[in-house]
User: Fold this.
Amino acid sequence: MKKENNIVTLNGENGKNMNFYLDCELEYDGYRYQILRPVDKFEDLEPDQAIVFRIEETTDGNQYFIEENDDIISEIEEIYNNM
Assistant:
């Protein structure tokens, strides 16, 4: 992961770099999360749709995982909307 000027670059599973705007970073239930919006259009996303990523620390750097639990996503959205 590389972060520059509120742009986060992630390496995708296929080795392709993907750029995201960093909306915010917050903590929930002992984990750090980032709300990211794609810089370029993604096939499966609406133009203003955000993705919730969970950040896990590893010995070789951060790892990002798309959060797939709808209950957690709802809690994070509520925290974000109340900021």
Observations:
- The chain has one helix and six strands.
- Residues 2-81 form one domain.
